[in-house]
Amino acid sequence: MSVDWIELDGAGFRHELTGGGERSIVLVHEMGGTLESWDLVLPLLGAGRAILRFDTRGAGQSTKLRGTAPFDRMADDVVALMDANGLRGPAVVVGCAVGGALALHAAARHPDRFDGVVALGPATGIAEERRPAILAYADRVEREGMLAVSEDELPRSYPEVLRADAERFRRFRARWLANDPGSYAAIYRMLAGIEMRAELEQLSLPSLFLAGRHDPLRPPEMIEPIARLVRGSRFEAVESGHFSATQTPDIVAGAIRAFVETLDGAA
């Protein structure tokens, strides 16, 4: 299936389903990303499962957001899009950064729909003392636009050490600048208000947490304690950054493939 649009719960979503099989992989992009965030990973995942990717609310060509993004609804969107695409069997849900938080939240709310989670530097909340600053920053993004904050964000989320492929970074930066500032701010406000510890402690699905050694926003020392909250999870520090699916697609795809093969072998 090529990229298409669908209306669910009064919102429009851009989505794409490729591959096939009883089991599936659902890819949830980062804040500021689109389904194209997975372009370099997708061809490396191999066959055997259907693969669903989509623009989340507020991203790409899906319905835009204002105010504060709805965390529960955005997690439920993952399952609604699975249903709309006929994916009834168990899925591995993979998410990057805020997409990692959405993947974990979807799995916690709908554990019967998933047989595993891969969380790439998941942004599972903001420390309480930092929340006022984050909310002020969200207001600035909404007021001044993406270009105004690009020199604050991109050196940390996409550092020079990961820019050896200059063309890849050029395309990423241009796509990132095209974000709707109101939606981007709404997701920042959502992030400032979530607290996932209790639900992660209750999650018992097989889970893999990856953290980039070049990610100052969600470094290994921040992600490893989060991983320990989930029973039976595995943690790996990798040579990547905050936008790992774009920056090091080979590492990300290899980790997903190995995780899926482990699940398939245990089935």
Q: Keywords for this structure?
A:
267 residues; alpha/beta; Rossmann fold; eight-stranded mixed β-sheet; 10 helices; 18% strand; globular
Share in helix: 40-55%
Major pleated sheet: 8 strands, mixed
CATH class group: Alpha Beta
Going by helix content, strand content and strand pairing, the class is: alpha/beta
CATH topology: Rossmann fold
Description:
This protein has one domain (4-266): Rossmann fold, CATH 3.40.50.1820. It has ten helices and eight strands. The protein has helices spanning 71-84, 98-109, 131-144, 146-157, 166-177, 181-193, 197-202, 220-229, 244-247, 249-266, and strands at residues 4-8, 11-18, 24-28, 50-54, 91-96, 114-120, 207-212, 234-238. An eight-stranded mixed beta sheet has the order 1-2-4-3-5-6-7-8, sandwiched between helices. The radius of gyration is 17 Å and the shape is globular. The two termini are 28 Å apart. The relative contact order is 0.16. The model has no long low-confidence stretch (mean pLDDT 96).
